[in-house]
Amino acid sequence: MDPPVSAVSALTTLYKTALDSIASPGGDEDIRGDLRLLLGFVKFTLYHNCYGDWKIFLQSLLESYTGANWSSKLPVLCDKLSSLLVYDESQCFQLIHKSLDDFLMDHNRCGDDWFLDHKIYKSLTSACSKLLMSYLGNACMSNSVSSEKTATQYALQYCSIYYSNVWKTGPRDNNFDIEAEVSHLLQWYLLRWVFYAVTKSSDFDRWQTVGFLSEGLLNLSENLDKTRNDPFAQLIHEAHRLSSALYANCCRARKVNTILYFFHFLCAAYRKDMKILHQWYMPAFVQMAGCSQNYGDIIEAIKALNDYPPLLSKEDTTAENIEIIGIFEVIEDEMLADVDWDLKKSWLDY
Questions:
Q1: Contact present, 178 and 163 (Cβ < 8 Å)
Q2: CA distances for 252 relative to 17, 74, 148, 204, angstroms
Q3: Domain span including residue 60
């Protein structure tokens, strides 16, 4: 075999030999797949040390995405990759050098076995949305602060960022899988997501969390193809409208006024023939009021709410034509005045 004729070809040989050796003996495809996934998450995951121990946090993301337990697997794989990883000042491990990044991102150099592309953003979006759904599906006010809750806070902040990167870095006609997952998150868990945000214990945490939630949903809408009018696009745009007033009022968002606003938004949107969020979440408000469709009963139920709103079964939801009785012609809610009904504002305009 001829010796390498350039620094690039020398590095290609070095990295390919190292990775193939790590994955041997036996060439186990599961090990190769796990190593490639781990390298991709290490390279592309956005992280700040406020989210706690990096390995525990990374384990949460990998377990959320794969549905498998990584508590034993992750230390073994990290040990195998130790010659290719380096710890930074915040005790996060990163790829050892930009030349390794370049190698892994060049299909001609690394081949199918080790190639990483921006599709990893789909995996990270999926990991974050699954983390959110898992936590919010079981959340109650008695839950203690835990690593799961810390990971949920991360997922809330970064889910929409990763999804936006999916749109920016890849073809837009092959995102049906991740669109279905994001749709499920917004159709079933958005009300609980908002409740989680506005029940943070400190003013700063509440302001920050409401800001992350609303800014993220605004970004989802802004990165969507403006010519689309399919159900997914309509859902994202309604989430934009809901979020616009949340973002404008994140400093004064509290549990009662924000959940009242959510209900009033559904009522006002229904009058404007925008019924997607209405059909998914009005049944929850009706259930909160003991199955009453009376406006006054629902208002009292919201004021008395002391735990997460109900998460309904499929049989209880998608009721398109729930009519709320006794609602005023003019809905008195200060936050409604800040709704961007015409989708004219960017989050930078607030």
A1: yes
A2: 57, 42, 27, 11
A3: 7-114
Q: Please give the C-alpha separations between residue 34 and each of 19, 78, 113, 140, 155, in angstroms, as whole numbers.
A: 12, 11, 11, 34, 22
Helices (H) and strands (E) in the chain, counts: 14, 2
Indicate whether 190 and 102 sit together in one domain.
no
Domain end (from 55, 86, 114): 114
CA dist 279 and 190 (Å) reads 13
| Alpha carbon distance 292, 283 (integer Å) | 10
> Both 160 and 221 in a single domain?
yes
Of 84, 114, 144, which marks where a domain is finished? 114
Q: Is residue 316 part of a domain?
A: yes
As for how many domains the chain has, the answer is 2
Residue 135 in domain: no
Q: Of the segments 19-23, 188-192, 196-200, 313-317, which one has the largest average pLDDT value?
A: 188-192
Per-residue pLDDT tens over the stretch 310-343: 988 766 655 567 889 999 899 999 999 999 999 9
Give dist(CA 332, CA 329) in Å, integer. Answer: 9
Q: Indicate the pTM of the whole model.
A: 0.86
**Residue 290 · residue 301 · CB < 8 Å:** yes
92 and 160 co-located in one domain: no
151 in Cβ contact with 60 (< 8 Å)? yes
